[in-house]
Amino acid sequence: MTTIFSKIIDKSIPADILYEDELALAFKDINPQAPIHFLVIPKKAIATINDIEEADKTLVGHLYWVAAKLAAEMGFAQDGYRAVMNCNEHGGQTVYHIHLHVLAGKALGWPPYQDKLKPKLV
Ligand code: AMP
C-alpha cells in the first residue's frame, strides 16, 4: 500500500527533511505536537508494527539510531525526548507506513492519552 509517506520518500511531495540515508528518512511533522516534532521512517513500506518481519529488526533499530543521532545534533538529547510509534486505530495511527515520532523541546506529559479515535489518512 502506498501512503503519503511514499510520496515524501520519492520526493513527489515536499517535506522538511532533516536526515536521509539509504534506509531511512527523517522529516518535520506537518502538525507538531511539541516544540520539536519529527518523524523517522524506513524507506521500505511497512504498514504497522504488526507487519515488522524478522528481517526488518535491524531496520527498525536503525530508526532509533537516526532519532538519537538527530537528538544529539539538534541539542536535545540530554534534556530528553520521546520516540514512539503508534499502531492501528486504538494506538492513534493515521498513516499506515511505520514512523517513529520524535517529540522534544519541553517536558512531555505521560500518559499521552486522548480518548478519541482518529481517521486514517491516505
Ligand atoms: P500517526 O497518527 O501516528 O499515524 O502519525 C502520522 C503523523 O504524520 C501525524 O503526526 C501527522 O501530522 C503527520 N503527517 C501527515 N502528513 C504529513 C506530511 N505531509 N508531512 C509531514 N508530516 C505529516
Automatic annotation (TrEMBL):
Active site: 99
All copies of domain HIT, residue ranges: 4-113
One Pfam family from the record: HIT
Top-rank taxon, per record: Bacteria
InterPro entries: Histidine_triad_CS, Histidine_triad_HIT, HIT-like, HIT-like_sf
MF GO annotations: catalytic activity
Membrane-spanning parts: none
Motif placement: Histidine triad motif: 97-101
Coiled-coil region(s): none
The protein's name in its UniProt record: Histidine triad nucleotide-binding protein
Organism from which the protein derives: Paraglaciecola hydrolytica
